[in-house]
Each structure stands twice: as C-alpha cells, then as structure tokens.
Amino acid sequence: MISQTIFPDIYIQTAMKQRGFKVGRSNVPKSPASAFGKRHFYKIVLSIGRVNVLYGDQLLKLDGTYLFISNPYTPYSVEVVSEVQTGYSCLFTREFIQPTKLTESMQQSILFDRSASPAYKINDVQLERISQLFEKMIVEEAAEYEYKDDVMRLYISMLLHETIKMKSAKNRILSVDASYRITKQFLELLERQFPIESLKIPLSLHTAQDFANHLGIHVNSLNRAVKKVTGKTTTLLISDRIATEAKALLELTDWNVAEIAYALGFEYPNYFSTFMKKNTGKAPKNYRKS
C-alpha cells in the first residue's frame, strides 16, 4: 500500500528508526503482490483503486475507496490490480504513540484485534473527512513546530475513531478460501523457522515436500495454493527466505561459512555456495565485511 517511489524501503526504515512516524500521499502503479511478511510499524492507508491484500488468513479484494489498517503482528502482502492506486499513507511505531494514553484505549481497538478484517469501505462523506485529516497531517509534517509530534498523535487518534465508527456499523469485508488458508499456514510455518539463533538448532524444513508433510496435505495441493495466492512457486519462496537469512548470518555473525551452511540445512558448504550463487548472484564470501 505504500508507494515505493514515495516511501522506498530504506526511507521507511530510516524514518521509523529516527522518529517512528511518516505520512504522505500515495501513487502506486499496477504491481504484483509484495513479499508476505510482518512490518515493524502500524499503518493507516486510505486506498483508492483496486487492491488485493492477503492479510494473515484473510483475502481482501478492495475495489473502490477503503481505509486499511495494519499492525506489526500480522503478516500481509499487497497487489495493486488497477493501473494506479492513490490515496494516503501514515506509518508509526508503538514507541511514537507511547507518550500518550492512546495506547491504553487502543488495546481494544482494531490495531490489536487480529481477528478483525482491517479494511473498511468508506462513502464520499467519509472520504472527504478522512482526506482532510491526512492533508492536515501533511501540512503539519512540513511545519517547523516544536510539538508537532503531539499534533500527529492527535490526528492518529482521530483516524482510529473513524475506524471505530465504521466497525460499529459492521462495514467490514472478509473473504477466505482454502487456498489462502493453506498459503497462510505455509508462510507462517516458513517464517517460524527464522531467525536462526543457534548452531544447535539447524533449519528442519527445506523443501515443498517437507512443508506439505508438516501441514498434512499433498505437495501438489500446497504448490497449487501457493501459486494461486502469491503468483510464485513454493520452492522460490522457500529459497528466497533462506537466502535472506543466509545474507543476514553472513553479514551479522562471526560464524564461519561451514557453520552457516549447516545451520541452514546444507549437508556440505559447497552446496551452500552453489545455492547462494544461484539465488543471489554472489558467493557467500562476498557478503563478509573485509
């Protein structure tokens, strides 16, 4: 839901680390589903266009104008189906809202209700009201005001109250089928293996067959479901996640290559080296800092 041209990943990471807050307009072109995973912040998005969101075990097909809210605890991915998705985006961390009593009231709000659908259809009157709140936030963000963070927290609270009104009106949407439940279970199981924190507990699930056996389904059923939902093969998703973890271990630990290979389930270091070259284009040693 965040425009990569407006909020690139590194920009988001920097903003969240330095201040814990970012707001802006969105203008996202048609794009395939993003990586399914958790983010380290809350997000409130006013989305205009056609967007498919896999949020936990919920498939949300948003066609029109919606308010979408996510939390750091639920993994999700986003596919922009229309030629462009416009609107607004606001990102913030729990630390950013901690100075207020906002977090106490939000314990019962949509931010922490993981069973609730996070998307709300809004009408023209609501669109105008919510758009005005976002525009005010953008104006305040550009201002040199000592206490503007307090103002931003107030606007976040107002946006959340809008969702509470919508929730009480039972304006939620929800659509889940077997493919999405299977994919959700697979992705959760995949993510549960990481991060690798001990050489004594190596990766145990490496192949689509391993995951299918663990889930108690035929591997063909798993592959069909994952392909339908993500557009990617089961093997590719597994390889991508292992490669991501491998890069982190190579860059951030003092384990040698053979130890990392073992931790990731490779019988021999040369198998690991071949895997990294195939999936990242680099040999393991190239990720080591000199």
From TrEMBL:
Tell me yes or no: is Glycoprotein among this UniProt entry's keywords.
no
Is the Endoplasmic reticulum keyword given for this protein? no
| Gene3D superfamilies tied to this protein | Homeodomain-like
Which keywords does this Swiss-Prot/TrEMBL entry list? DNA-binding, Transcription, Transcription regulation
Q: State what protein this is by name.
A: HTH araC/xylS-type domain-containing protein
- GO molecular function of the protein, one example? sequence-specific DNA binding
Taxonomic superkingdom: Bacteria
Instruction: Provide the HTH araC/xylS-type domain boundaries.
Output: 184-290
Cited Pfam families: HTH_18
